[in-house]
Amino acid sequence: MTSIVTRLRLKTIQALDRARLRQQLSRHPGLSLDEETSTNFSSSHFALAPGARLVLGPRVYTERRSGGVHFAISEGASVEIGADTWLRSDIAPVLIFAFPGARIRIGREGFMNGCHLSAKAGLEIGNRVWIGPGSRVFDADQHDLDAERVEGIEPVTIGDHCWIASDVTVLKGVEIGEQSVVGTRSLVTRSLPPHTLALGNPAVPAGKIGDRSKVPI
Questions:
Q1: DSSP assignment of 175-187, as one string?
Q2: Which residue of 82, 101, 186, 192 shows the fewest CB atoms closer than 10 Å?
Q3: Is 195 left (phi over 0), alpha (psi -120 to 50) or beta?
Q4: Helices (H), the chain
Q5: Which of 28, 70, 143, 161 is catalytic?
Q6: Lowest mean pLDDT: which of 55-64, 119-128, 146-155?
Q7: Domain 2-208 has CATH 2.160.10.10
Q8: Is 138 exposed, middle or buried, given 0-12, 13-18 or 19+ CB atoms closer than 10 A?
Q9: pLDDT grade for 212, boundaries at 50, 70 and 90
Q10: Where do the structural domains in the chain lie, given as residue ranges?
Q11: Which letter does DSSP use for residue 153 in this model?
Q12: Once rounded to an integer, what is the mean pLDDT over residues 37-58?
């Protein structure tokens, strides 16, 4: 009897979540959810300006946690999240900001774990990339330094099968080659070649990384 009641309760919750998502879809014309996208996104926060675009692919998943994922997408900006990606929010919220005209693309089988992504030009994040709690990826300085030294903006690229550990900051213009690992609390200011272990502030190569394509999460 208990299992039947539990199943009915879960089905009711899921039906309510689907209804909330339908409301979000009607409110935001640029929002596109695959039919297999987790209904837990009904608890997420969506702030899409006119002309903004957000695409969540099949089996993109998050926890059912109020405000666990926050999307802020400005005019003409787009965010695309590939199939089987997990936006994990139980440790910390996942924050995704795309400023006017910017583009953020996250490939399939990603693991965004309590991280902060911010783009004024573009972030290109490959397939099966992991980004850990407290880590931040910025493609801009965020503000002018003074009247003469204005904000710099350069796209960021993170290749397939990379692991950006916890409390890492990746700054503008960086390209991290595929199958690289960046250690905890590192500051990445320069590009890294593929298969690199990088550590430190600023991060520098500290070793080689082998094949990560089949490493389990």
A1: EEPTT-EE-TT-E
A2: 101
A3: left
A4: 2-27
A5: 143
A6: 146-155
A7: yes
A8: buried
A9: very high
A10: 2-208
A11: B
A12: 96
